[in-house]
């Protein structure tokens, strides 16, 4: 792969200062004119008399004004000094799954960190959720992200307070890979309280942004950032989300793109789990740990362990022996003939089964009769009480 030429790279870097993330009419212009052609239309001689489809004269004048001020050479030079690089469609490092966004595809991405984005994105999972999360949600996000990181998955999130931060910390604590997709420049610490966390992510993973260095976030940019998280990863896990949570935008975008959508259930009484439960009532898959996530999004053979209850001693008995045991009433001894009638087995086989149960401590001999041992009788009584209470 030869990659984009210098003119293409400069044009796309300039356009990150001209077009807002996710502007579909900008994507249509790029398809029609190419990045170099579009910049020439916005800045070249006679550009003020050139109309572009989809926008009016006033808005087009705004694009031209931003294009005239853009200095991609300076942006790229200053970015390189800060360890930031720019990749765009056609670059060897460009993740082609972002092309699924169509005309809403990023013009390019600014990256801070050493790993290769293309290779990382092939095995990545988004973990997102509420900013004002509960301790339960933070714990689940951190444990789930740590487990995914230990299994070799890249944990992608948005570096916000709450679930996002817990997910990044879980992956970092496990010594694994994590990437933060920002709604601002990759050199801007937002939120400011996560400046240290973003520094750790950049040192151990990747910080990703559509906006050029120095750009600050706006509410709409947060929403549009979520489409990149959804497209970049193989699936999205939502851990706590109210009905109007922005993390649900990521999940629904993932569904539209044909990615896996998962949710971690919470208490039915928690407003912060209402949005997750709505997802789970639809096409989302319920998950409770990293193994279940990996089973869904991973390769063939990445199976979660089968969940089984404790193995009881009576589980190891043969079916006929269990029938004899169940034929013994609690609290009184009975003779062998009564047991044979109750379980429908011959007397000779019953006596053999009773001696087997006696050797294992399930029954006791009382003269000519047999009865459940005290320990077995207590277990039967407890089981019966549990069943009655469960109705």
Summarize the structure.
With 391 residues, the protein is an alpha/beta fold.
Characterise the protein shown here.
With 391 residues, this protein is of the alpha/beta class. The chain folds into three domains: 6-81; 113-297, Rossmann fold (3-Layer(aba) Sandwich); 313-390, Orthogonal Bundle (Arc Repressor Mutant, subunit A), CATH 1.10.10. The chain has helices spanning 6-15, 24-43, 57-69, 72-81, 117-121, 135-150, 163-173, 195-204, 219-232, 247-256, 274-281, 290-297, 319-327, 336-343, 347-359, 374-390, and strands at residues 84-87, 109-112, 124-129, 154-157, 178-182, 206-209, 235-239, 260-264, 285-286, 334-335, 363-366, 369-372. The chain has a nine-stranded mixed sheet with strand order 1-2-6-5-4-3-7-8-9, sandwiched between helices. Strands 10-12-11 form a three-stranded antiparallel sheet. Helix 11 (274-281) links the parallel strand 8 (260-264) and strand 9. Residues 381-391 have low confidence and may be disordered.
Count of distinct structural domains: 3
Strand pairing plus helix content: what structural class? alpha/beta
The first-to-last residue Cα distance is 66 Å
Query: How confident overall, as mean pLDDT?
Result: 89
Number of strands: 12
Topology:
Blueprint: H1 6-15, H2 24-43, H3 57-69, H4 72-81, E1 84-87, E2 109-112, H5 117-121, E3 124-129, H6 135-150, E4 154-157, H7 163-173, E5 178-182, H8 195-204, E6 206-209, H9 219-232, E7 235-239, H10 247-256, E8 260-264, H11 274-281, E9 285-286, H12 290-297, H13 319-327, E10 334-335, H14 336-343, H15 347-359, E11 363-366, E12 369-372, H16 374-390
Parallel strand pairs: 3-4, 3-7, 4-5, 5-6, 7-8, 8-9
Antiparallel strand pairs: 1-2, 2-6, 10-12, 11-12
Helix pairs in contact: 1-2, 1-4, 6-7, 6-12, 7-8, 9-10, 13-14, 13-15
């Amino acid at each position: 792969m030869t990659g984009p030429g210098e003119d293409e790279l400069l044009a796309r870097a300039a356009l990150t200062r001209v077009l807002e993330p996710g502007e579909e009419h900008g994507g249509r212009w790029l398809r029609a004119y190419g990045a170099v052609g579009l910049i020439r239309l916005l800045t070249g001689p006679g550009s003020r008399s050139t109309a572009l489809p989809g926008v009016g004269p006033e808005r087009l004048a705004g694009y031209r004004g931003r294009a005239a001020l853009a200095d991609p050479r300076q942006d790229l030079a200053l970015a390189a000094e800060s360890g930031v690089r720019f990749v765009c469609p056609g670059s060897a490092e460009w993740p082609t799954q972002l092309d699924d966004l169509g005309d809403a595809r990023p013009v390019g991405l600014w990256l801070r960190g050493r790993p290769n984005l293309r290779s990382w994105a092939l095995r990545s999972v988004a973990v997102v959720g509420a900013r004002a999360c509960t301790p339960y949600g933070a714990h689940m996000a951190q444990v789930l992200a740590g487990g995914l990181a230990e299994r070799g998955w890249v944990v992608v999130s948005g570096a916000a307070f709450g679930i996002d931060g817990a997910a990044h910390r879980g992956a970092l604590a496990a010594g694994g890979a994590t990437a933060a997709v920002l709604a601002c420049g990759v050199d801007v610490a937002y939120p400011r309280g996560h400046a240290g966390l973003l520094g750790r992510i950049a040192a151990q993973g990747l910080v990703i942004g559509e906006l050029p260095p120095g750009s600050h976030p706006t509410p709409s940019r947060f929403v549009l950032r979520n489409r990149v998280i959804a497209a970049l990863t193989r699936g999205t896990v939502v851990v706590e989300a109210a009905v109007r949570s922005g993390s649900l935008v990521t999940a629904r975008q993932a569904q539209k793109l044909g990615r896996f959508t998962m949710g971690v259930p919470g208490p039915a009484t928690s407003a912060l789990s209402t949005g997750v439960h709505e997802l789970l009532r639809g096409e989302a898959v319920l998950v409770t740990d990293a193994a279940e996530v990996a089973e869904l999004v991973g390769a063939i053979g990445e199976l979660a362990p089968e969940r089984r209850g404790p193995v009881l001693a009576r589980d190891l008995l043969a079916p006929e022996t269990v029938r004899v045991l169940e034929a013994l009433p609690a609290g009184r001894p009975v003779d062998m003939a009564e047991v044979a009638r109750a379980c429908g087995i011959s007397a000779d086989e019953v006596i053999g089964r009773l001696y087997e149960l006696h050797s294992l401590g399930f029954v006791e001999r009382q003269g000519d009769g047999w009865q459940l041992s005290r320990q077995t009788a207590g277990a039967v009584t407890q089981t019966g009480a549990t069943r009655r209470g469960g109705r």
